[in-house]
Design a protein that fits this description.
By secondary structure, the protein is of the alpha+beta class. It has helices at about 45-60, 80-100, 100-105, 110-115, 120-125, 135-145, 150-165, and strands at about 5-15, 20-30, 40-45. The chain has a single domain, classed as 2-Layer Sandwich (PX Domain), CATH 3.30.1520.10. One of its GO terms (cellular component) is endosome.
């Protein structure tokens, strides 16, 4: 049975400049779904990137009622652990609901959001064909830059020799591929199915 486990965790305050700071969150994905190019991935995203994602998904799937993001409150205090954790939980619930919808899973922006560190502008350029790389290329490039388990390279080479061209992606560019990447994440077992 297919599963997609998503964890939003490890909020960190990042300095933009001497006056501005923001919080970003680690998004960890573990799945066996054929919809995903990478079976394990980890990226960091900030709240406004979630807002961008929701807007793009809604514009592409007008008949679907998307889940809400946690409200953006003027009283949000990034130094208040309760505020930060409440937002983190809301972001995780948002992604859990999104990842249950087959139509939304077909949106390349969602995959780039979850499995690369591309900016929203670069994600838009990629999905509209304005880059030299495809969606699958972007995901593979990010994975190879952030590979954490060197054993996987050997297993992939061995598997490629055994399977020849069977390891190529499907026509959607988001088909089956090899596994685990990380951006400093702690790998955790899939605790529950979504």
């Amino acid at each position: 049975q297919e599963f997609v486990t998503v964890l939003v965790r490890d909020p960190r305050i990042q300095k933009e400049d001497s006056w501005h700071s923001y919080i970003d969150y680690e998004i960890f994905i573990h799945t066996n779904s054929i919809c995903f190019t990478r079976k394990t991935s980890c990226v960091r995203r900030r709240f406004r990137e979630f807002v961008w994602l929701r807007q793009r998904l809604q514009s592409n799937a007008v008949l679907i009622q998307l889940p809400e993001l946690p409200s953006k409150t003027p009283f949000f205090n990034m130094n208040n652990p309760h505020h930060v954790d409440h937002r983190r939980q809301g972001l995780q619930e948002f992604l859990e609901k999104i990842l249950q919808d087959v139509l939304l899973l077909s949106d390349s922006r969602l995959h780039l959001f979850l499995q690369t560190q591309l900016s929203p502008e670069d994600m838009e350029a990629c999905v509209s064909g304005q880059t030299k790389y495809s969606v699958a290329d972007a995901i593979h490039s990010f994975a190879s830059l952030n590979r954490r388990f060197p054993v996987e390279d050997e297993e992939r080479k061995k598997g490629k020799n055994d399977a020849d061209s069977d390891s190529e992606s499907s026509s959607s560019g988001l088909g089956p591929s090899d596994d685990s990447i990380s951006c400093g994440c702690k790998a955790s077992p899939a605790s529950e199915e979504s």
